[in-house]
What we know:
single chain; mainly alpha; 19 helices; 4 strands; 61% helix; 2% strand
Amino acid sequence: xxRVADPRAEAGAADRLPPHVALxxxxxxxxxxxxxxxxxxxxxxxxxGVRGVLWAEDGRNFLEDRLRLGPWNAVFxxxxxxxxxxxxxxxxxxxxxxxxxxxxxTAALLASLTFGVIAGLVYVCSRDLIRSRAFRVxxxxxxxxxxxxxxxxxxxxxxxxxxxxxxAPWLLLYRPRTWIGAxxxxxxxxxxxxxxxxxxxxLPLAIVHVKWPKxxxxxxxxxxxxxVQIVATVTSPRTxxxxxxxxPLDIAVGYVELPILGAFEGHSARIQSALLEGGFGxxxxxxxxxxxxxxxxxTPVFTxxxxxxxxxxxxxxxxxxxxxxxxxxxxxxxxQYADLDSETLQGFRITRYVAVPSMLLLGAVVVAAAQAFxxxxxxxxxxxxxxxxxxxxxxxxxxxxxxxxxxGPQWSTSIDQARNTCESGLVPAPIEIAPPTWTVDxxxxxxxxxx
Length: 451
C-alpha cells in the first residue's frame, strides 16, 4: 500500500510554492472543484426536456408521502422493504424551498448536487490507494461520467442510492486522518447505509483498517445504517417477484454483454445492433474484450504490494457479485441472456442494474492504470492506452438518445393544468409522470400551499 503522506511535510512543501501553484495543489480546493465540476457534468448529461419530467418514485412515493404526512415526517417510511432517507430528505428540501411546479427540475438539480458530493468524496477517499491527483480526479469522475448513467440513474431521487453503493468501497478503504474527518465520513456512511442496503457487500472491508481506530467510526456507522435496512426488510418485505430467475450462464453472458461493454458504451441501440448483426462472431469478440479488460484490471495482483495488490480484485469481485445479485433478486422476463436470439434481442436494453457493476469495473481499470503509470517505463504506455479508452467511453456516451424519461409529461405543465382545474372548482385527476402508468395524486390544497 502507498505510504500515507505526512501532512506537516505536505504543508511545508506547499509553503515553498508560489501561491497560485499551492492553491491548485491543495487537496481541499481540488475536492471542492471536483464536486462542483461533477455536479455540472451530471446536470449537463440530462437534456432540458428530461429535467422537467418527474420520475417514478420521486412523484408517486416521495412527493406524495411528503405532501400527505408533512415536513420531515416521512423520512423513515419504508417502501418496498427499504428505508430511503436521502431521497426523502431531498424531497423535503425541494418541497420546502421551491415551488411545487418546479419539483421535477429541483429534483434533477439536487440529485446532481448529491452525485457531485459523492464524486468529491471518492476523490478524497482514494488518497491512500492512488498517488496521482490526476488519476484520483479521473476515478471520481466515474461517479457522473460512466457511460450508462443517464439512461435511468442521473437526475432523480429514486436512483441516488446507487451513488452510495459506488462510494462504499472507497469510504471503507480510507484511513481518516482526524476525528473530525472520521465523524464527517461516519455521517455520510450512516445516511448511505440508511439509503442503500447493498453497502452490506463492502462491510467486510472494515477489517483492512482494524488497527486504525478512526476508521472504525465509518465502519460502525455503515453497519448501523445497513442493520436498520435489514430490520425494515424483515418487517416490511418487498413485493414478491414471480418472474423466472436467471441461471448462472445467463448471469455470466449478461455480464459480458452489459456491465463490461456498458463500461465503455452507453448506447443500448449500438450494443443491440452489434449483437443482432454480428451473431457468434460478436460473442467471441465480446468474450475477448472481457478477458482483456478484467486481465488488465487485475495486473496489480502481480505487480503491486500491500493493499494495492488486492483492491482491483475487490472491485472486480464486487462488480460480479453486484450484477449477479441484482439479476437474482430482481428477475425479469428479459434476463435470459444465454438464450438471446433475433426475437428476444428486440427487447434488449441497458437497465439501471448495469450501472454500478460497470462503475466498479472502471474503478478497477483506473486503479490498475495508476499503478502501471507509477511503475514507469513501458507500463506508462499501457496505462495511457487504458485511460484513453476510458476517456473515449466518457466522451462518446456523454449524451445518450434513449434516456428512459425522455418525452414524458412535463411536470410544470401538468401542475398548471391541475391549477386551472382547481380554479374551476373541480378536483384534478391524478397527474401522469414517467414511466407510463405512473401517477401522482395531488390536491388543490397541495398546489395552493406550495406555490
